[in-house]
Protein backbone atom coordinates (compact mmCIF):
# COMPACT_ATOMS: atom_id res chain seq x y z
CA UNK A 1 0.00 0.00 0.00
CA UNK A 2 2.62 2.48 1.14
CA UNK A 3 5.03 1.66 -1.67
CA UNK A 4 2.34 1.73 -4.36
CA UNK A 5 1.38 5.22 -3.24
CA UNK A 6 4.99 6.29 -3.48
CA UNK A 7 5.41 4.97 -7.02
CA UNK A 8 3.01 7.64 -8.24
CA UNK A 9 4.84 10.33 -6.29
CA UNK A 10 8.20 9.07 -7.49
CA UNK A 11 7.03 9.19 -11.10
CA UNK A 12 5.83 12.76 -10.58
CA UNK A 13 9.19 13.77 -9.08
CA UNK A 14 11.00 12.26 -12.07
CA UNK A 15 8.79 14.12 -14.56
CA UNK A 16 9.41 17.44 -12.81
CA UNK A 17 13.15 16.80 -12.60
CA UNK A 18 13.20 16.05 -16.33
CA UNK A 19 11.31 19.29 -16.98
CA UNK A 20 14.01 21.17 -15.11
CA UNK A 21 16.98 19.29 -16.50
CA UNK A 22 16.10 19.29 -20.20
CA UNK A 23 16.37 23.07 -20.82
CA UNK A 24 19.80 23.11 -19.16
CA UNK A 25 21.03 20.17 -21.21
CA UNK A 26 19.55 21.81 -24.32
CA UNK A 27 21.50 25.01 -23.60
CA UNK A 28 24.71 23.03 -23.56
CA UNK A 29 24.01 20.97 -26.69
CA UNK A 30 22.41 23.84 -28.59
CA UNK A 31 25.42 26.12 -28.04
CA UNK A 32 27.57 23.54 -29.86
CA UNK A 33 25.07 22.96 -32.67
CA UNK A 34 25.63 24.33 -36.16
CA UNK A 35 23.82 24.02 -39.48
CA UNK A 36 25.79 20.87 -40.27
CA UNK A 37 26.67 19.16 -37.05
CA UNK A 38 28.66 20.05 -33.94
CA UNK A 39 30.66 23.26 -34.03
CA UNK A 40 32.42 25.76 -31.81
CA UNK A 41 31.19 28.68 -33.92
CA UNK A 42 28.81 30.11 -31.32
CA UNK A 43 31.47 30.12 -28.63
CA UNK A 44 34.19 31.56 -30.82
CA UNK A 45 31.90 34.31 -32.12
CA UNK A 46 31.20 35.31 -28.51
CA UNK A 47 34.86 35.30 -27.59
CA UNK A 48 35.72 37.37 -30.67
CA UNK A 49 32.95 39.89 -30.11
CA UNK A 50 34.30 43.06 -28.44
CA UNK A 51 30.74 43.85 -27.33
CA UNK A 52 30.89 40.82 -25.04
CA UNK A 53 33.84 42.19 -23.09
CA UNK A 54 32.36 45.64 -22.68
CA UNK A 55 29.02 44.17 -21.56
CA UNK A 56 30.77 41.83 -19.15
CA UNK A 57 32.90 44.68 -17.83
CA UNK A 58 29.87 46.91 -17.31
CA UNK A 59 27.89 44.17 -15.53
CA UNK A 60 30.79 43.27 -13.26
CA UNK A 61 31.49 46.92 -12.45
CA UNK A 62 27.84 47.53 -11.59
CA UNK A 63 27.77 44.35 -9.50
CA UNK A 64 30.88 45.39 -7.55
CA UNK A 65 29.70 48.96 -6.94
CA UNK A 66 26.19 47.87 -5.98
CA UNK A 67 27.46 45.19 -3.63
CA UNK A 68 29.80 47.58 -1.83
CA UNK A 69 27.21 50.34 -1.56
CA UNK A 70 24.47 47.96 -0.55
CA UNK A 71 26.49 46.15 2.11
CA UNK A 72 27.66 49.39 3.71
CA UNK A 73 24.20 50.96 3.68
CA UNK A 74 22.31 47.90 4.84
CA UNK A 75 24.80 46.76 7.49
CA UNK A 76 24.72 50.24 9.01
CA UNK A 77 20.93 50.30 8.78
CA UNK A 78 20.35 46.86 10.30
CA UNK A 79 22.84 47.46 13.13
CA UNK A 80 21.35 50.86 13.87
CA UNK A 81 17.85 49.38 13.96
CA UNK A 82 18.91 46.68 16.40
CA UNK A 83 20.97 48.93 18.67
CA UNK A 84 19.08 52.18 18.66
CA UNK A 85 15.82 52.08 16.77
CA UNK A 86 13.96 48.83 17.44
CA UNK A 87 10.72 50.81 17.33
CA UNK A 88 11.42 51.60 13.65
CA UNK A 89 12.14 47.99 12.70
CA UNK A 90 8.71 47.29 11.23
CA UNK A 91 8.91 50.46 9.15
CA UNK A 92 12.34 49.60 7.75
CA UNK A 93 11.30 46.03 6.96
CA UNK A 94 8.10 47.31 5.35
CA UNK A 95 10.09 49.62 3.09
CA UNK A 96 12.39 46.79 2.00
CA UNK A 97 9.33 44.71 1.08
CA UNK A 98 7.80 47.60 -0.86
CA UNK A 99 10.08 46.63 -3.74
CA UNK A 100 7.79 43.71 -4.45
CA UNK A 101 4.69 45.86 -4.61
CA UNK A 102 6.27 48.13 -7.22
CA UNK A 103 7.26 45.99 -10.24
CA UNK A 104 10.56 47.00 -11.85
CA UNK A 105 8.84 48.10 -15.04
CA UNK A 106 6.63 50.59 -13.15
CA UNK A 107 9.71 51.85 -11.30
CA UNK A 108 11.31 52.45 -14.71
CA UNK A 109 8.46 54.50 -16.13
CA UNK A 110 8.18 56.60 -12.95
CA UNK A 111 11.93 57.16 -12.69
CA UNK A 112 12.41 57.93 -16.39
CA UNK A 113 9.79 60.66 -16.24
CA UNK A 114 11.35 62.18 -13.12
CA UNK A 115 14.93 61.98 -14.35
CA UNK A 116 14.11 63.45 -17.76
CA UNK A 117 12.40 66.35 -16.04
CA UNK A 118 14.84 66.99 -13.19
CA UNK A 119 18.26 65.59 -14.04
CA UNK A 120 18.50 64.39 -17.66
CA UNK A 121 22.33 64.29 -17.33
CA UNK A 122 21.96 61.48 -14.78
CA UNK A 123 20.72 59.16 -17.52
CA UNK A 124 23.97 59.73 -19.37
CA UNK A 125 25.99 57.45 -17.12
CA UNK A 126 25.33 53.77 -16.33
CA UNK A 127 26.20 54.60 -12.72
CA UNK A 128 22.59 55.82 -12.36
CA UNK A 129 21.70 52.12 -12.23
CA UNK A 130 23.63 51.59 -8.98
CA UNK A 131 21.19 53.25 -6.54
CA UNK A 132 18.28 51.51 -8.26
CA UNK A 133 20.05 48.16 -7.93
CA UNK A 134 20.69 48.91 -4.27
CA UNK A 135 16.94 49.42 -3.90
CA UNK A 136 16.09 46.28 -5.89
CA UNK A 137 18.28 44.17 -3.60
CA UNK A 138 16.98 45.82 -0.39
CA UNK A 139 14.75 42.95 0.62
CA UNK A 140 17.44 40.32 0.14
CA UNK A 141 20.26 42.18 1.87
CA UNK A 142 18.01 43.30 4.71
CA UNK A 143 16.72 39.81 5.44
CA UNK A 144 20.12 38.17 5.19
CA UNK A 145 21.74 40.73 7.50
CA UNK A 146 18.81 40.89 9.89
CA UNK A 147 18.93 37.10 10.27
CA UNK A 148 22.68 37.36 10.88
CA UNK A 149 22.28 40.01 13.57
CA UNK A 150 19.48 38.10 15.28
CA UNK A 151 21.67 34.98 15.35
CA UNK A 152 24.16 36.75 17.61
CA UNK A 153 23.43 38.50 20.86
CA UNK A 154 24.30 41.96 19.58
CA UNK A 155 23.48 44.02 22.67
CA UNK A 156 25.38 41.69 25.02
CA UNK A 157 28.41 41.63 22.73
CA UNK A 158 28.43 45.42 22.51
CA UNK A 159 28.01 45.83 26.28
CA UNK A 160 30.75 43.31 26.98
CA UNK A 161 33.15 44.97 24.55
CA UNK A 162 32.36 48.41 25.97
CA UNK A 163 32.92 47.27 29.54
CA UNK A 164 36.34 46.04 28.42
CA UNK A 165 37.06 49.50 27.14
CA UNK A 166 36.55 49.00 23.40
CA UNK A 167 35.57 51.99 21.26
CA UNK A 168 32.97 51.82 18.52
CA UNK A 169 35.53 51.25 15.75
CA UNK A 170 37.01 48.28 17.60
CA UNK A 171 33.55 46.91 18.36
CA UNK A 172 32.49 47.18 14.74
CA UNK A 173 35.66 45.76 13.18
CA UNK A 174 36.61 43.15 15.76
CA UNK A 175 33.32 42.10 17.33
CA UNK A 176 30.35 42.73 15.06
CA UNK A 177 31.63 42.26 11.50
CA UNK A 178 33.47 38.96 12.19
CA UNK A 179 30.19 37.61 13.58
CA UNK A 180 28.32 38.80 10.51
CA UNK A 181 30.66 37.20 7.96
CA UNK A 182 28.29 34.54 6.65
CA UNK A 183 25.36 36.95 6.57
CA UNK A 184 27.46 39.46 4.62
CA UNK A 185 28.50 36.71 2.24
CA UNK A 186 24.89 35.66 1.64
CA UNK A 187 23.82 39.28 1.13
CA UNK A 188 26.69 39.86 -1.30
CA UNK A 189 25.77 36.75 -3.28
CA UNK A 190 22.13 37.81 -3.60
CA UNK A 191 23.09 41.34 -4.63
CA UNK A 192 25.49 40.06 -7.30
CA UNK A 193 22.87 37.72 -8.79
CA UNK A 194 20.28 40.51 -8.82
CA UNK A 195 22.65 42.84 -10.67
CA UNK A 196 24.05 40.28 -13.13
CA UNK A 197 20.54 39.15 -14.12
CA UNK A 198 18.88 42.55 -14.22
CA UNK A 199 17.38 43.39 -17.61
CA UNK A 200 14.38 45.69 -17.17
CA UNK A 201 16.18 48.84 -16.02
CA UNK A 202 19.37 48.43 -18.00
CA UNK A 203 17.59 47.70 -21.29
CA UNK A 204 15.14 50.59 -20.93
CA UNK A 205 17.82 53.01 -19.72
CA UNK A 206 19.73 51.83 -22.83
CA UNK A 207 22.83 50.39 -21.19
CA UNK A 208 24.41 47.30 -22.66
CA UNK A 209 24.82 45.03 -19.65
CA UNK A 210 25.34 41.30 -20.09
CA UNK A 211 21.62 40.35 -20.27
CA UNK A 212 20.96 43.18 -22.73
CA UNK A 213 23.88 42.05 -24.89
CA UNK A 214 22.59 38.47 -24.69
CA UNK A 215 19.11 39.49 -25.82
CA UNK A 216 20.60 41.53 -28.64
CA UNK A 217 22.77 38.82 -30.17
CA UNK A 218 19.98 36.30 -29.56
CA UNK A 219 17.85 37.84 -32.28
CA UNK A 220 20.48 37.01 -34.92
CA UNK A 221 22.25 33.97 -33.49
CA UNK A 222 20.35 32.01 -30.89
CA UNK A 223 23.32 29.64 -30.40
CA UNK A 224 25.55 32.48 -29.23
CA UNK A 225 22.91 33.64 -26.76
CA UNK A 226 22.57 30.05 -25.53
CA UNK A 227 26.32 29.91 -24.92
CA UNK A 228 26.12 33.14 -22.92
CA UNK A 229 23.07 31.96 -20.99
CA UNK A 230 24.94 28.79 -20.06
CA UNK A 231 27.94 30.83 -18.92
CA UNK A 232 25.67 32.97 -16.74
CA UNK A 233 24.03 29.94 -15.16
CA UNK A 234 27.34 28.21 -14.50
CA UNK A 235 28.82 31.39 -13.06
CA UNK A 236 25.86 31.83 -10.68
CA UNK A 237 26.03 28.22 -9.57
CA UNK A 238 29.78 28.39 -9.14
CA UNK A 239 29.32 31.46 -6.97
CA UNK A 240 26.64 29.67 -4.95
CA UNK A 241 28.89 26.67 -4.35
CA UNK A 242 31.76 28.96 -3.40
CA UNK A 243 29.64 30.96 -0.97
CA UNK A 244 28.23 27.81 0.65
CA UNK A 245 31.72 26.34 0.93
CA UNK A 246 33.29 29.45 2.39
CA UNK A 247 30.47 29.99 4.88
CA UNK A 248 30.73 26.38 6.02
CA UNK A 249 34.44 26.91 6.57
CA UNK A 250 33.64 30.03 8.57
CA UNK A 251 31.31 27.92 10.64
CA UNK A 252 28.50 30.40 10.64
CA UNK A 253 25.87 28.07 9.24
CA UNK A 254 24.11 28.40 5.94
CA UNK A 255 23.51 32.01 4.93
CA UNK A 256 20.09 32.97 3.72
CA UNK A 257 20.35 32.71 -0.03
CA UNK A 258 16.87 32.23 -1.39
CA UNK A 259 14.90 34.89 -3.14
CA UNK A 260 11.63 34.37 -1.29
CA UNK A 261 10.79 37.07 1.12
CA UNK A 262 7.52 36.40 2.86
CA UNK B 1 25.93 58.07 28.61
CA UNK B 2 27.96 57.35 25.51
CA UNK B 3 28.43 59.97 22.87
CA UNK B 4 26.18 58.25 20.32
CA UNK B 5 23.17 58.37 22.65
CA UNK B 6 22.67 62.00 21.73
CA UNK B 7 22.04 61.24 18.08
CA UNK B 8 18.29 60.86 17.55
CA UNK B 9 17.29 57.31 16.57
CA UNK B 10 15.88 58.24 13.18
CA UNK B 11 19.02 60.12 12.11
CA UNK B 12 21.06 56.92 11.78
CA UNK B 13 18.48 55.63 9.34
CA UNK B 14 18.50 58.77 7.23
CA UNK B 15 20.74 57.38 4.42
CA UNK B 16 18.45 54.36 4.10
CA UNK B 17 15.30 56.47 4.10
CA UNK B 18 16.76 58.90 1.54
CA UNK B 19 17.74 56.16 -0.92
CA UNK B 20 14.43 54.36 -0.46
CA UNK B 21 12.57 57.60 -0.99
CA UNK B 22 14.57 58.85 -3.96
CA UNK B 23 14.79 55.63 -5.94
CA UNK B 24 11.65 53.76 -4.95
CA UNK B 25 8.94 55.78 -3.23
CA UNK B 26 9.28 58.94 -5.31
CA UNK B 27 9.20 57.17 -8.71
CA UNK B 28 6.18 55.16 -7.54
CA UNK B 29 4.49 58.32 -6.28
CA UNK B 30 5.26 59.96 -9.61
CA UNK B 31 3.46 57.11 -11.40
CA UNK B 32 0.35 57.70 -9.29
CA UNK B 33 0.51 61.44 -9.84
CA UNK B 34 1.15 61.29 -13.58
CA UNK B 35 -1.68 58.81 -14.06
CA UNK B 36 -4.09 61.55 -13.04
CA UNK B 37 -2.75 64.45 -15.10
CA UNK B 38 -2.51 65.19 -18.84
CA UNK B 39 0.76 66.09 -20.53
CA UNK B 40 0.19 69.75 -19.67
CA UNK B 41 -0.16 68.85 -15.99
CA UNK B 42 -3.91 69.41 -15.60
CA UNK B 43 -6.02 66.94 -13.64
CA UNK B 44 -7.77 64.34 -15.79
CA UNK B 45 -9.35 60.91 -15.57
CA UNK B 46 -8.82 60.23 -19.26
CA UNK B 47 -5.61 58.21 -18.81
CA UNK B 48 -7.36 55.86 -16.45
CA UNK B 49 -10.39 55.49 -18.66
CA UNK B 50 -8.05 54.75 -21.58
CA UNK B 51 -6.90 51.54 -19.96
CA UNK B 52 -10.40 50.21 -20.59
CA UNK B 53 -9.83 50.51 -24.33
CA UNK B 54 -9.85 47.12 -26.04
CA UNK B 55 -6.05 46.95 -26.49
CA UNK B 56 -5.18 47.69 -22.86
CA UNK B 57 -8.10 45.81 -21.35
CA UNK B 58 -6.93 42.82 -23.37
CA UNK B 59 -3.40 43.29 -22.01
CA UNK B 60 -4.66 43.19 -18.42
CA UNK B 61 -6.77 40.13 -19.15
CA UNK B 62 -3.93 38.29 -20.89
CA UNK B 63 -1.44 39.14 -18.13
CA UNK B 64 -3.91 38.09 -15.45
CA UNK B 65 -4.62 34.83 -17.29
CA UNK B 66 -0.91 34.10 -17.69
CA UNK B 67 -0.28 34.87 -14.02
CA UNK B 68 -3.32 32.88 -12.86
CA UNK B 69 -2.57 29.77 -14.93
CA UNK B 70 1.15 29.65 -14.13
CA UNK B 71 0.48 30.36 -10.44
CA UNK B 72 -2.20 27.65 -10.37
CA UNK B 73 -0.13 24.94 -12.05
CA UNK B 74 2.96 26.10 -10.18
CA UNK B 75 1.14 25.95 -6.83
CA UNK B 76 -0.24 22.45 -7.40
CA UNK B 77 2.95 20.98 -8.88
CA UNK B 78 5.13 22.73 -6.31
CA UNK B 79 3.02 21.48 -3.40
CA UNK B 80 3.02 17.88 -4.63
CA UNK B 81 6.76 18.09 -5.26
CA UNK B 82 7.43 19.42 -1.76
CA UNK B 83 5.24 16.70 -0.26
CA UNK B 84 6.91 14.01 -2.37
CA UNK B 85 10.37 15.17 -1.35
CA UNK B 86 9.32 15.13 2.32
CA UNK B 87 7.93 11.56 2.27
CA UNK B 88 10.22 9.81 -0.19
CA UNK B 89 13.02 8.18 1.78
CA UNK B 90 15.11 7.18 -1.22
CA UNK B 91 17.30 8.27 -2.77
CA UNK B 92 18.80 9.72 0.40
CA UNK B 93 20.24 12.79 -1.29
CA UNK B 94 16.85 13.76 -2.77
CA UNK B 95 15.80 16.12 0.02
CA UNK B 96 18.96 18.21 0.25
CA UNK B 97 19.43 18.11 -3.53
CA UNK B 98 15.92 19.46 -4.12
CA UNK B 99 16.33 22.16 -1.47
CA UNK B 100 19.51 23.42 -3.11
CA UNK B 101 18.04 23.00 -6.54
CA UNK B 102 14.84 24.95 -5.86
CA UNK B 103 16.94 27.78 -4.46
CA UNK B 104 19.09 27.81 -7.56
CA UNK B 105 16.32 27.30 -10.13
CA UNK B 106 14.22 30.10 -8.70
CA UNK B 107 17.19 32.39 -9.42
CA UNK B 108 17.27 31.23 -13.01
CA UNK B 109 15.05 33.73 -14.73
CA UNK B 110 15.04 36.59 -17.13
CA UNK B 111 17.05 36.51 -20.33
CA UNK B 112 19.05 33.27 -19.80
CA UNK B 113 15.81 31.41 -19.07
CA UNK B 114 14.29 32.67 -22.31
CA UNK B 115 17.21 31.29 -24.32
CA UNK B 116 17.19 28.00 -22.41
CA UNK B 117 13.70 27.44 -23.80
CA UNK B 118 14.64 28.69 -27.26
CA UNK B 119 17.29 25.97 -27.17
CA UNK B 120 14.71 23.41 -26.04
CA UNK B 121 11.37 24.02 -27.73
CA UNK B 122 12.17 26.95 -29.99
CA UNK B 123 11.57 26.33 -33.70
CA UNK B 124 15.14 24.91 -34.00
CA UNK B 125 15.32 23.67 -30.41
CA UNK B 126 16.65 20.32 -29.31
CA UNK B 127 13.29 18.76 -28.41
CA UNK B 128 11.62 20.26 -31.47
CA UNK B 129 14.19 18.71 -33.85
CA UNK B 130 14.18 15.45 -31.94
CA UNK B 131 10.39 15.22 -32.16
CA UNK B 132 10.66 16.06 -35.85
CA UNK B 133 13.10 13.16 -36.32
CA UNK B 134 10.63 10.71 -34.82
CA UNK B 135 7.91 12.09 -37.05
CA UNK B 136 6.13 14.59 -34.85
CA UNK B 137 5.94 18.15 -36.10
CA UNK B 138 5.57 20.20 -32.88
CA UNK B 139 5.11 23.52 -34.64
CA UNK B 140 2.69 21.86 -37.07
CA UNK B 141 0.25 21.46 -34.18
CA UNK B 142 0.03 25.24 -33.94
CA UNK B 143 2.25 25.35 -30.86
CA UNK B 144 4.81 28.10 -30.63
CA UNK B 145 7.26 29.01 -27.87
CA UNK B 146 6.61 32.64 -28.71
CA UNK B 147 2.94 32.41 -27.76
CA UNK B 148 0.80 32.55 -24.65
CA UNK B 149 1.12 28.81 -23.96
CA UNK B 150 4.83 28.93 -24.72
CA UNK B 151 5.18 31.57 -21.99
CA UNK B 152 3.13 29.40 -19.61
CA UNK B 153 5.71 26.60 -19.95
CA UNK B 154 8.63 28.99 -19.49
CA UNK B 155 7.12 30.71 -16.44
CA UNK B 156 6.56 27.33 -14.74
CA UNK B 157 10.33 26.99 -14.67
CA UNK B 158 10.56 29.65 -11.98
CA UNK B 159 7.07 29.30 -10.47
CA UNK B 160 7.42 25.64 -9.37
CA UNK B 161 10.74 26.06 -7.47
CA UNK B 162 9.44 29.26 -5.88
CA UNK B 163 6.39 27.34 -4.67
CA UNK B 164 8.62 24.60 -3.28
CA UNK B 165 10.64 27.12 -1.28
CA UNK B 166 7.50 28.72 0.12
CA UNK B 167 5.67 25.46 0.90
CA UNK B 168 8.45 23.50 2.55
CA UNK B 169 7.99 25.07 6.03
CA UNK B 170 4.24 24.30 5.96
CA UNK B 171 4.70 20.75 4.67
CA UNK B 172 7.55 20.02 7.07
CA UNK B 173 5.26 21.32 9.81
CA UNK B 174 2.58 18.71 9.08
CA UNK B 175 2.96 16.24 11.88
CA UNK B 176 3.03 12.52 11.20
CA UNK B 177 0.81 12.28 14.28
CA UNK B 178 -2.07 13.86 12.35
CA UNK B 179 -2.12 11.24 9.62
CA UNK B 180 -1.60 8.45 12.16
CA UNK B 181 -4.47 9.73 14.27
CA UNK B 182 -6.69 9.88 11.19
CA UNK B 183 -5.65 6.36 10.22
CA UNK B 184 -6.37 5.03 13.72
CA UNK B 185 -9.82 6.54 13.54
CA UNK B 186 -10.41 4.57 10.34
CA UNK B 187 -9.94 7.37 7.84
CA UNK B 188 -8.81 6.41 4.37
CA UNK B 189 -5.88 8.18 2.77
CA UNK B 190 -8.29 10.18 0.66
CA UNK B 191 -10.36 11.14 3.69
CA UNK B 192 -7.24 12.26 5.53
CA UNK B 193 -6.33 14.61 2.73
CA UNK B 194 -9.91 15.74 2.12
CA UNK B 195 -10.72 16.58 5.75
CA UNK B 196 -7.36 17.19 7.44
CA UNK B 197 -4.37 17.70 5.15
CA UNK B 198 -5.76 19.97 2.46
CA UNK B 199 -7.81 22.20 4.81
CA UNK B 200 -4.75 22.71 7.00
CA UNK B 201 -2.53 23.52 4.05
CA UNK B 202 -5.07 25.71 2.25
CA UNK B 203 -4.09 29.09 3.75
CA UNK B 204 -0.41 28.41 3.08
CA UNK B 205 -1.11 27.26 -0.49
CA UNK B 206 -3.36 30.25 -1.19
CA UNK B 207 -0.82 32.66 0.29
CA UNK B 208 1.93 31.23 -1.87
CA UNK B 209 -0.41 31.18 -4.88
CA UNK B 210 -1.08 34.92 -4.73
CA UNK B 211 2.65 35.54 -4.41
CA UNK B 212 3.26 33.46 -7.54
CA UNK B 213 0.48 35.42 -9.22
CA UNK B 214 2.15 38.74 -8.35
CA UNK B 215 5.49 37.34 -9.46
CA UNK B 216 4.24 36.34 -12.92
CA UNK B 217 2.18 39.50 -13.30
CA UNK B 218 5.31 41.66 -12.77
CA UNK B 219 7.66 39.61 -14.97
CA UNK B 220 9.01 41.53 -17.94
CA UNK B 221 12.40 40.31 -19.16
CA UNK B 222 11.54 36.75 -20.19
CA UNK B 223 8.36 37.75 -22.02
CA UNK B 224 10.00 40.72 -23.70
CA UNK B 225 12.94 38.71 -25.01
CA UNK B 226 10.82 35.77 -26.16
CA UNK B 227 7.79 37.42 -27.70
CA UNK B 228 8.92 41.04 -28.21
CA UNK B 229 5.30 42.08 -27.98
CA UNK B 230 3.42 39.37 -29.89
CA UNK B 231 1.71 38.41 -26.64
CA UNK B 232 -0.14 41.45 -25.35
CA UNK B 233 1.03 41.89 -21.74
CA UNK B 234 0.80 44.92 -19.45
CA UNK B 235 4.53 45.12 -18.58
CA UNK B 236 5.41 44.95 -22.29
CA UNK B 237 2.90 47.71 -23.07
CA UNK B 238 4.44 49.91 -20.36
CA UNK B 239 7.85 49.17 -21.88
CA UNK B 240 6.58 50.50 -25.23
CA UNK B 241 5.67 53.77 -23.55
CA UNK B 242 9.11 54.04 -21.92
CA UNK B 243 10.80 53.41 -25.27
CA UNK B 244 8.55 55.96 -26.92
CA UNK B 245 7.35 53.22 -29.25
CA UNK B 246 3.70 54.21 -29.14
CA UNK B 247 1.65 56.06 -31.60
CA UNK B 248 -0.98 56.88 -29.00
CA UNK B 249 -1.83 60.56 -28.90
CA UNK B 250 -1.76 60.36 -25.13
CA UNK B 251 1.62 59.24 -23.78
CA UNK B 252 0.33 59.55 -20.19
CA UNK B 253 -1.53 56.24 -20.63
CA UNK B 254 1.73 54.45 -19.74
CA UNK B 255 1.45 55.83 -16.20
CA UNK B 256 -2.15 54.69 -15.91
CA UNK B 257 -1.11 51.18 -16.98
CA UNK B 258 1.70 51.24 -14.42
CA UNK B 259 -0.73 52.38 -11.73
CA UNK B 260 -3.06 49.52 -12.63
CA UNK B 261 -0.18 47.11 -12.38
CA UNK B 262 0.93 48.41 -8.96
CA UNK B 263 -2.70 48.14 -7.84
CA UNK B 264 -2.98 44.47 -8.88
CA UNK B 265 0.42 43.42 -7.54
CA UNK B 266 0.14 45.22 -4.19
CA UNK B 267 -3.39 43.88 -3.81
CA UNK B 268 -2.01 40.36 -4.21
CA UNK B 269 0.73 41.06 -1.67
CA UNK B 270 -1.77 42.44 0.83
CA UNK B 271 -3.86 39.28 0.40
CA UNK B 272 -0.73 37.23 1.01
CA UNK B 273 0.01 39.05 4.28
CA UNK B 274 -3.55 38.46 5.45
CA UNK B 275 -3.35 34.76 4.59
CA UNK B 276 0.04 34.47 6.30
CA UNK B 277 -1.50 35.64 9.51
CA UNK B 278 -4.00 32.80 9.22
CA UNK B 279 -1.17 30.33 8.63
CA UNK B 280 0.65 31.59 11.70
CA UNK B 281 -2.41 30.86 13.82
CA UNK B 282 -2.12 27.07 13.59
CA UNK B 283 1.55 26.74 12.77
CA UNK B 284 2.54 27.47 16.38
Report on the structure:
The complex is a heterodimer of chains A (262) and B (284). Chain A has 13 helices and 2 strands, in the order H-E-E-H-H-H-H-H-H-H-H-H-H-H-H. Chain A has 262 residues and is an all-alpha fold. Chain A has a single domain, classed as MetI-like fold (Orthogonal Bundle), CATH 1.10.3720. In chain A, a hairpin with a 2-residue loop joins strand 1 and strand 2. In chain A, helix 2 packs across helix 13 (222-250), helix 3 crosses helix 6 and helix 7 packs antiparallel against helix 10 (181-197). Chain B is an all-alpha fold and 284 residues long. In chain B, helix 11 (234-243) runs antiparallel to helix 12. The radius of gyration of chain B is 24 Å and the shape is globular. Chain B has helices at 14-35, 46-50, 54-87, 94-105, 110-121, 126-133, 148-172, 176-184, 189-218, 221-227, 234-243, 253-283. Chain B has one domain (52-283): MetI-like (MetI-like fold).
Mean pLDDT of chain A: 89
Work out the count of structural domains of chain B.
Answer: 1
Determine the structural class of chain B based on helices, strands and strand pairing: mainly alpha
Helices of chain A, by number, come to 13
Which structural class is indicated by helix and strand composition of chain A? mainly alpha
Q: Overall 3D geometry of chain B?
A: globular
The portion of residues assigned to helices of chain B is: over 70%
Q: Please tell me the CATH architecture of chain B by its name.
A: Orthogonal Bundle
State the distance separating the first and last CA atoms of chain B.
Answer: 40 Å
What are the segments of chain A in which pLDDT stays under 50 over at least 5 consecutive residues? none
- The CATH homologous superfamily of chain B is termed MetI-like
How would you spell out the order of helices and strands of chain B? HHHHHHHHHHHH
Strand content of chain B: under 5%
Mean pLDDT of chain B: 88
Q: Tell me the greatest interface.
A: A-B, 83 and 91 residues
Give me the CATH superfamily of chain A.
MetI-like
Q: What CATH first level of chain A would be assigned?
A: Mainly Alpha
Q: What is the CATH class name of chain B? A: Mainly Alpha
How large is the radius of gyration of chain B?
24 Å
